């Protein structure tokens, strides 16, 4: 039974994580919040030896940057899936609780603290991050609502997917509604964000390392050669 509930929490976390990814992407394009997957990508670059990061990006080109961003997005969504499994475990141990709204809201502390650490500790994130009090409050609100949605969705899926708990019609309606709402929110937010014109390079994504140009080579010349180059008469 516990394994079934954890699997249900995993899928609930994937849905909520995808929806939050779209919302955070829209907020970053509007210069309201940070896009946490990009913060994660910058952290990966920061802790990767410079030669390895630069060589990888030069070899893969644009696909190197895209792969890193995609991996960071998947990691962010997977983190919420794990959080959903933890909430499902809590619900199994507290059958007297009809939902996990409060634990879900409390769980939002973890991604919020992680975001603040990434933005303050990584130089590339500090250069483009909006760290004023309004942005932090907005992030706390987004994460809090996401945590409550995760708690509600996890509890609802567990109740409605338990064999014999509800009718097949009610179960199907709840599943289709929750999946459709999460995917519509994710796709809609990302679609609106894609319509916003980029106003700076920093908005586009990761502050990836670039190869440092070699210093110019200075060729020593003799006084006679320098005099000829200057157009002065040469000594006889």
Count of helical segments?
A: 11
Question: Would you identify the regions where 5 or more consecutive residues have pLDDT less than 50?
Answer: 200-212, 224-230
Shape: elongated
Helix content: over 70%
- Terminus-to-terminus distance: 102 Å
Mean pLDDT: 75
Major sheet attributes = none
Order of helices and strands: HHHHHHHHHHH
**Helix-strand makeup class:** mainly alpha
Describe this structure in words.
With 236 residues, the protein is mainly alpha-helical. The protein is built from 11 helices and no strands. α2 crosses α4 and α8 runs antiparallel to α9.
What's the short story on this structure?
It contains 11 helices and no strands.
